Amino acid sequence: MGKVKLKYFSRIREAIGKPSELLEIKSNNLLDLIEELQSMGEQYSVLKGRDFVVYSAVDQNMVTDLKTSIEGATEIAFFPPMTGG
Fold it and tell me: How far apart are CA 70 and CA 77, in angstroms?
């Protein structure tokens, strides 16, 4: 597919150990990307959302369907639910 900037926030950033990375990926949708990342190391298992919900955004647009195409995307973000005040 090409190079994509991946951004991680909050607990996900802490588990993966970095705020972002630029990777050459092969995946065409979010579900395949998560599986591809998990094959790179245990730290990416946080993206499965076993302990909390994981939200995703593709080029700063929220995505709810993990089968959403990421072809042509330049940025993909993963983050847990957040609150603020």
Answer: 12
| Mean pLDDT, rounded, of the chain | 92
Is the pTM higher than 0.85? Answer: yes
Q: What SS3 state is found at 71?
A: coil
Pairing type for strands 20-25 and 2-8 reads antiparallel
Give the Cα separation of 31 and 73 in Å (integer). Answer: 14
- Say which residues have a Cβ less than 8 Å from residue 61's Cβ, sequence separation at least 6: none
Give all domains of the chain, ordered by start, each with its CATH number.
2-79 (3.10.20.30)
